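User: I'm curious what two different proteins look like when written out as structure tokens. Can you demonstrate?

Assistant: Sure. I'll show them one after the other, since each token string lines up with its own sequence. Here's the first protein:
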Amino acid sequence: MRIFSILPCVVFALACASAVRVPKPEPVPGLHEPSPAGTPEWNAFITHVQDSLQTLDPAREAAAAVMRGNCRLLALQEFALVVPGYNQYWQKYRYGVYVLPDGGELLSSVESNFLQVAHRYAEGFNRYILEHSCRPRA
């Protein structure tokens, strides 16, 4: 009879011990967003990031991340957190995600253009990470 009172505690402990802890989403390192969104400073920042993403090769940047042992995917904050090229819940990706900047719910034309460019870049970056079996360094 005592086994039945202990069994739920053992099952709970095993479930907690076996859970994979996913790092919480973080902003892309080195990008310091001015606030608030919609200001001239914000638009200049978003335009600069967009220009950078358009000139960078996502596969080459992802390869460099893999070489450093950084397996995080890139995400965009739309109405929900979206990880282009990853067709599962981002919470199931064990290495975590970096979130590219966003302007909030009401997008200007500058932000709308940025999101299109950022989505294409993130999809190419994430595809490379996922296809090359990234393993983080200890």
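Here's a second, unrelated protein for contrast:
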Amino acid sequence: MNFFLLILILLMFHGAKFAPAGIHEDYLSREHALNLRGVFTIIIVMTHYMLYFPYTNPGNEQFTYVWTFLDQLVVVVYLFFNGYGTVLSVEKKGWPYARNLLIHKLPDTWLKYALVTCLVLAVHSFMQLKYTLGSVLMAFTGWHHFYHDDQWYVVMILFMYALFFLAYLPLRRHSGEKALKICTGVAAVLCCGLIFVISRKKDYYWYNTMPAMLLGMGWALYHRPVEKLLERSGALYAACLMMCALGLYVFRIHQDESLLNMFMLVILFMVTILLCSMKVSLNNPLLAFFGSHSFTIYLTMRIPMLVLQRYELVYSQPAICLLLILLCSAGLGMAVDRAGDALSQRLHPVIDRLADRVEGRLSK
């Protein structure tokens, strides 16, 4: 695993752009965001591989340390850019984008999850695993545990799309910076309410990284003043980076003592990534590929793991097995994305007509 970790580090630096003075203006660009998502997607596949096939090589300590330190933090980047990208898109496109969160993005996301669930059921059928009709139907909701516990991310994203739509409803008749900030504040309050409700129903990991999305929403509105301050003073930048590093160390040790400690760890981890991104901008096409299909790779990665569990290769050639899982997950993820996008293109006109009818009746 250390070998794969080294390859990942080399991929990060291959094509990277450095800013010895000032900060990168494009550190929040889509390309850099895809690269970051790609890095953590590969790490997630590697860590889940370790869960299925414990890798006891004595030279594996470095990756084990990275895995232990990151734990739930591997999803922080996804949640941050989800919140950041949503607010930024609403700021640029207004109500039409907020409307599409409910009628396009929400069903598109669920559709891809449903396609992966169908794939899993097919694999389980091939492996002669039996399920009741009720458990199969509940699997498509994502609310109950099916064959893994990764569906929490899907459910939380679907909830947030619906809450974003509700929060930005006033933009139908009001526009401008003030309206955007008020609506984003309402979205943040609704997100906090969702965290509270979910905490009463689900396990800790369902909601403990959600502050990253709140940070993304706030960063979309207020990142420019922060950037100006850090660009003027290299000493201030260095001080912020050292404080974040110290905070990460302290809150990582005490993260299990309270939920607030975990929230602080999530925020400091993402701020540290942002500070590093201001100086180093990733630009690797392979990482960007994994980042562009991160959602479906995240959902499909367990399928090849389930299949390979049946063969001795995983124990005799673990490195080859991991490479096969990465390739299969990437292939499955890309296939699900293409199939989901093709189905969505056919469904969007139908959904648009239904939405127009509903809006027409409500406006009467």
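A detail about the second structure: The chain has a mean pLDDT of 87.
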